[in-house]
Amino acid sequence: MKNHAFPCPNCNNPLEMDIDALLLGRVIECTDCHSSMKLTKDHINSVADALKSKTSVSKKK
Ligand SMILES: [Zn+2]
Prior knowledge:
The protein has 61 residues and is α+β, with helices and mostly antiparallel strands. The protein has one domain (3-53). 33% of the residues lie in helices and 23% in strands. It is globular, with a radius of gyration of 12 Å. The model has no long low-confidence stretch (mean pLDDT 77). Residues 8, 10-11, 13, 30, 32-33, 35 line the site of zinc ion (ZN).
């Protein structure tokens, strides 16, 4: 289970998300304001980098 929280760009509600789903470009919905959003590739990469340095697990995709 790899979950990572980031603030909703609309209401700043911290959203927990499945990194694997995010890396696939899945659209997520804020649990508070219910706005749908999709992370840009740059954002996904920075999240993935942060996770990598945190867990030091190298996983090739
Ligand atoms: Zn929101």
